[in-house]
Amino acid sequence: MTFRDWFRPPRHVLTIFLSVAVVSAGALGWLSWLLVAQDRALDVQRRQARLEQAADRATAIMQGALADLELQLTASSAHTSEPPPGVVIVIGGPTGVIDVVHPDGGLLYYPEPGQAPEAPTAPFIEAEQAEFARRDLVAAGNLYTALASGTDTAVRAGALAGLARIRRKGQYPDAALAAYDELAELSGVRVAGLPPGLVARTGRARVLEDTGRASELRDEAARLDEELRSGRWQLTKSQHQFYSAEARRWLGQPELEMDTADREAEALADAVQWLWDERPWEEGPSPEPAARRLVQMGGMPVLAVWNASPESLRVGVAGPSYLTALGHEAIPDTDLEWTLSDPAGRVVLGEPSTSPLAVRTAAASRLPWSLQVYSAAGPDLSPTSPRQGLLLWVLAVLAVVWVTGAYFIVRAISRELAVERLQSDFVAGVSHEFRSPLASLSQIAEMLVSNRFASDDLRRQSYDVLARETDRLRRLVEGLLDFGRFAAGGAVYHFEPVDIGAFLETVISEFRARAAATGHTIELSLPAVTTYVRGDRDALSRAIWNLLDNAVKYSPDCHTVWLDVEQDRDRVSLTVRDQGLGIPVDEQRAIFERFVRGAESKARRIKGTGVGLAMVRRIAEAHGGEVRLTSQPGQGSRFTMILRTYDRLEAAGGVA
Ligand code: ADP
């Protein structure tokens, strides 16, 4: 079908309709899409506005929290009020030595441990000479015992440590342990730069190690480890690491195991250490006496806030636990997420996201970090508002209606075109069929009028042709009339008992003359028994004639056509078979439709109108039967008409 075919009447109505439908559907779709896009843009704007609001609110809350923290640093009563959870406040004196730490044990280790008093060396000279120079442990022991009973705590501590040492050397482990226990009671002083508690704990562990008291050693080491982790003693980082390693050795755990809390405590201590090393309040080209800073310590973000004055130095440090709590307080919405980045733009807390963000940079917000707020659900592309949903539904329904409509329109147009093509084929076929007998007739008639026959023989032959062509014309006209009656469904049937054998013999004897013209013979095979059907002789004869005529027409090379009759219980089948052209499988259904002709028959210009098989099928159906076809191209065809048999005697009895 060419494109122009679509625009020829009457299709033009459908075509215009189709075009209008396409254009209107397109316009509608486009408009709806615009609406959805607009709605979505609004939605995106709304979401962004919400993120911006949340970021503003969060910035304000964070600024408030930092301001509170700074106030706590500057307030004179700072050391009395407890800092928020997760924050450690360190107050140093003018010399920078740490005075107070909030909360107690807040720092794991110290840049400069506190200046607790230590015993002078003078009282110990004699005892140490006895112990180390003369190796007189008894004398040394007595001297240490005397010193240990004094009133000066620092001296007592030094003496108890010496006493315990002597007893350990003298193989008096229990006495050594007792001395260490006594030493552990003392506080506020230092022994060889260490807190007495730590000296006692490690001394006890060594005694237990010497004496092989493994389980007691493990308990002791576990307590030591716990006390070190709790920041109980003011130690330098190297002291802390040394005694932690000792504790682990005694525990038999050479690997250092740290949980998040341990790592955070270490990060805080490192941050303080770093501040004390860097001294940003007095070092550098532009010292900052008061500042807020976010630093990375051991892979963890640590907030450092300080305020340095000539009288005191106050520093607040807080790790991820404080920052996370602050974040949650500032952004309580469960559907929002946030991240904090350092000034270099690295995300230090929270999961980075690719979703749309609301960002408050450090520079703009005066916070030591940049804050990013985003939606936890990610970039949401699904329609969320009911309006968008409804629009998409309407669009979908319209699309379905349109596609269905278009399908039916195209189908209607195709059918109409097919019918038209069949009808024109039919007209061409019919005119072709009529043309040749009419030409013969007019030629003979002309010769008769002018009496131009060369001989009587020729004249006789002309009469034969006249008779044959007239008969052919008659049959053609009758065939078309029959088609009008039978295939169009307007026939009135006169049913009567028909002896199939006798009936077929009559039909064939009439047909033989037609077959002889093309040199074909018909072979009839009948069952032994007489079989009756109840039928209309005229209609059945028309149907069998058509099948035989086709068999002859479509077997140009094989000149025999067979008609086999078989009876099976109450059915009789009349099979007309040939060894002619055969019919392709994809045509076998269609050829029973009106005006449909096979491609091969058209290609070979075999005359025909395409109505014969439609009529045969109608006639068979009117008799309560059917027509079946088996065929293979090049091998011939078998058309079988199946009819119900009829018991004539019974019927006669019934009538009587
Ligand atoms: P017509 O023979 O006038 O074309 P019919 O309705 O009788 O119309 O047959 C329809 C088509 O079926 C034929 O055009 C032909 O292609 C095919 N056909 C029918 N009978 C045979 C046959 N015996 N052998 C091969 N093709 C056949």
Q: Ligands bound here?
A: adenosine-5'-diphosphate
Shape: rod-shaped
CATH class of the largest domain: Alpha Beta
Sheet/helix structural class: alpha+beta
Helix content: 40-55%
How is the CATH topology of the largest domain named?
Heat Shock Protein 90
| Annotated CATH homologous superfamily of the largest domain | Histidine kinase-like ATPase, C-terminal domain
Strand portion, in percent? Answer: 15-25%
Individual helix count: 18
| Gap from first CA to last CA | 63 Å
Main sheet: strands, sense, barrel: 5 strands, antiparallel
Number of domains: 4
Defining traits:
single chain, 656 residues, alpha+beta, Serine Threonine Protein Phosphatase 5, Tetratricopeptide repeat, five-stranded mixed β-sheet, 18 helices, rod-shaped, binds adenosine-5'-diphosphate
Give a summary of the structure in a few sentences.
With 656 residues, this protein is an alpha+beta fold. It has helices at 11-74, 125-133, 137-148, 153-169, 173-184, 196-210, 214-229, 237-251, 260-278, 320-330, 362-365, 386-450, 456-487, 500-517, 537-553, 599-603, 612-622, 648-655, and strands at 87-92, 98-102, 290-297, 300-308, 313-318, 336-341, 347-349, 357-360, 370-375, 496-499, 521-525, 532-535, 560-568, 571-578, 626-632, 636-644. 53% of the residues lie in helices and 15% in strands.
